[in-house]
């Protein structure tokens, strides 16, 4: 029972009780052997013999499981399952859908530790953060369950007693395509509004982190959704492309890099399908000399080092007003060096492993390039090998603070997507606003100041979709999240997201005779 529930086996082959399993689940102790696809209500093994891809455990560098990318036949089966589930689900009332979604939220809460641990094993982030990600996923489902019964149109009285009304209707089969940095959260952030609006979904996780989205599929099924309402197909760009082109797919919601987002938009355009694009960022964090420096330093850490720095909205360009630069740098380096790096399953860890060896090497190469271009490494930026032998092949690095940075440096222009903070100085508000906005990206931005009028004046002029005043990377599901410019299209979370998962039908009702011109 436990093994089925948890979806994996233990290397010592015994399946202890749940509590013991939770206790004995440690890095390097898990092999995942269950199928990772899920459609028409249950896990599915791949029917097409395709080359299996290794999926790694970032904490140890060992193979965690194997992934078989889904081909056309399997994608078609999953879309067909979603299409058949759409019928009954879309005919339910919002309250009926809400009841089932609330049950799913309860099940997530009851399996919080298990889901969080599997997220850690597959993504490498600390258990402390993984629990918060699972909470955000649950809250998102609760939030949209609450909105499900509020989806309504409007009545418009017209001359002569005639009138019109609008109906807010679902889109049909929605596709979700996820990135590897928040696997379970992204699956929830996409499926919750989709299902609340009466749609069904086929979700494709990143092939780097295929494990936890299937747990969400199991939970939705157990909560009582119609068979096939939420499906998971595994694979990479080929599987993703098959989903985008599929004639029975009505919408694509994508989270990932800008180049891939552009391809998604192009593919969806063939079927004139609406897209949501949650893309990359290179966000500014502005610290004025009148800010509470203690909070500004903590804000800079929150803006750069969550999830090993692998966060789209990170404020990685930290602009500090000249008068407080030395004090800020001294304190931020001290706190960065104190971040506990190591086994992500340990309660004391605050920085786990980056998601893959190639990604670790890419981030380290950004630090080398920064040095070549004249930046100073104040701390970190090196490969880290924990003392525990089972972690020696894991993908760890020390969090890095760069100073003496200039706006033209690669580390300041390009998204690094790792624990690398670039510190820059500025003198005036006008200067820093021009520099902060001087990017093709526009996902997020932050400002620290005690001057409330300056805070709102600056935020008004920042070209970014998610802005923070005197904090950073706080994203309650009650408010929208998404980007300006090349950082994306549409929003996730908040009431507005209903617009991206539904469509309005206008009905005109003639109460008199046709007044024909002919
Ligand atoms: N804005 C946000 O909310 C947000 C959140 C997380 C990550 N991101 C961004 O994602 C990037 C890192 O994630 P990643 O490396 O997984 O991004 P990626 O673009 O490489 O992959 C994202 C997803 O797209 C799929 N994919 C790749 N090529 C495809 C194609 N041609 N057709 C269909 N699907 C395709 C991948 O399999 C994966 O599931 C960073 O740029 C980061 O900023 C943005
Ligand atoms: C929840 N965060 C921290 C805003 C991350 C959202 C997804 C971007 O990587």
TrEMBL record:
InterPro entries xref list: Ald_DH/histidinol_DH (IPR016161), Ald_DH_C (IPR016163), Ald_DH_CS_CYS (IPR016160), Ald_DH_CS_GLU (IPR029510), Ald_DH_N (IPR016162), Aldehyde_DH_dom (IPR015590)
Domain (Aldehyde dehydrogenase) ranges = 48-507
Which reaction is recorded as catalysed by this protein? 4-(trimethylamino)butanal + NAD(+) + H2O = 4-(trimethylamino)butanoate + NADH + 2 H(+); an aldehyde + NAD(+) + H2O = a carboxylate + NADH + 2 H(+)
Q: Which pathway does the record list?
A: Amine and polyamine biosynthesis; carnitine biosynthesis
Give the UniProt subcellular location, in the record's own words.
Answer: Cytoplasm, Cytosol
Question: What the protein does?
Answer: Converts gamma-trimethylaminobutyraldehyde into gamma-butyrobetaine with high efficiency (in vitro). Can catalyze the irreversible oxidation of a broad range of aldehydes to the corresponding acids in an NAD-dependent reaction, but with low efficiency.
Name it.
Answer: Aldehyde dehydrogenase 9 family, member A1b
Q: What is the lineage of its organism?
A: Eukaryota, Metazoa, Chordata, Craniata, Vertebrata
């Amino acid at each position: 029972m436990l093994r089925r529930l948890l979806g994996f086996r233990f290397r010592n082959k015994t399946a202890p009780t749940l509590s013991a399993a939770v206790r004995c689940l440690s890095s390097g102790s898990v092999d995942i052997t269950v199928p990772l696809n899920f459609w028409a209500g249950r896990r599915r093994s791949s029917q097409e013999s395709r080359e299996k891809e290794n999926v790694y455990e970032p904490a140890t560098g060992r193979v965690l499981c194997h992934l078989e990318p889904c081909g056309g036949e399997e994608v078609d089966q999953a879309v067909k399952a979603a299409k058949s589930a759409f019928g009954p689900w879309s005919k339910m009332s919002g309250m009926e859908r809400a009841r089932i979604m609330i049950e799913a939220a309860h099940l997530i809460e009851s399996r919080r530790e298990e889901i969080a641990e599997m997220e850690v094993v597959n993504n490498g982030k600390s258990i402390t953060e993984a629990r918060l990600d699972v909470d955000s996923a649950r809250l998102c489902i609760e939030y949209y369950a609450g909105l499900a019964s509020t989806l309504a149109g409007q009545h418009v009285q017209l001359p002569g007693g005639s009138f019109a009304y609008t109906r807010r209707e679902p889109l049909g089969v929605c596709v979700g395509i996820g990135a590897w940095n928040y696997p379970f959260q992204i699956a929830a952030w996409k499926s919750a509004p989709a299902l609340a609006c009466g749609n069904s979904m086929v979700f494709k996780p990143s092939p780097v982190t295929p494990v936890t989205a299937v747990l969400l599929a199991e939970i939705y099924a157990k909560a009582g959704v119609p068979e096939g309402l939420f499906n998971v197909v595994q694979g990479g760009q080929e599987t993703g492309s098959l989903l985008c082109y599929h004639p029975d797919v009505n919408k694509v919601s994508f989270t990932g890099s800008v180049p891939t987002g552009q391809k998604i938009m192009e593919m969806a355009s063939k079927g004139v399908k609406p897209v949501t694009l949650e893309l990359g960022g290179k966000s500014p964090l502005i610290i004025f000399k009148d800010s509470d420096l203690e909070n500004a330093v903590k804000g800079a850490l929150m803006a750069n080092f969550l999830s090993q720095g692998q966060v789209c909205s990170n404020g990685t360009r930290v602009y500090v007003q000249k008068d407080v630069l030395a004090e800020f740098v001294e304190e931020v380096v001290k706190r960065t060096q104190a971040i506990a790096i190591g086994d992500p399953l340990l309660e004391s860890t605050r920085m786990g492993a980056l998601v893959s060896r190639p990604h670790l090497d890419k981030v380290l190469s950004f630090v080398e390039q920064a040095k070549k271009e004249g930046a100073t490494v104040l701390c970190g930026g090196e490969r880290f090998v924990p003392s525990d032998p089972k972690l020696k092949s894991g993908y760890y690095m020390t969090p890095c603070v760069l100073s003496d940075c200039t706006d033209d440096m690669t580390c300041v222009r390009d998204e690094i997507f790792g624990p690398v903070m670039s510190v820059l100085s500025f003198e005036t508000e006008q200067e820093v606003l021009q520099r902060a906005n001087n990017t093709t990206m526009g996902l997020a931005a932050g400002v620290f100041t005690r001057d409330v009028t300056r805070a709102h004046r600056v935020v008004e002029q920042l070209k970014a979709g998610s802005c923070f005043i005197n904090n950073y990377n706080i994203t309650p599901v009650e408010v929208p999240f998404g980007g300006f410019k090349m950082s994306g299209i549409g929003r996730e979370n908040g009431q507005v997201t209903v617009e991206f998962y539904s469509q309005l039908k206008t009905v005109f009702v003639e109460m008199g005779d046709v007044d024909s011109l002919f």
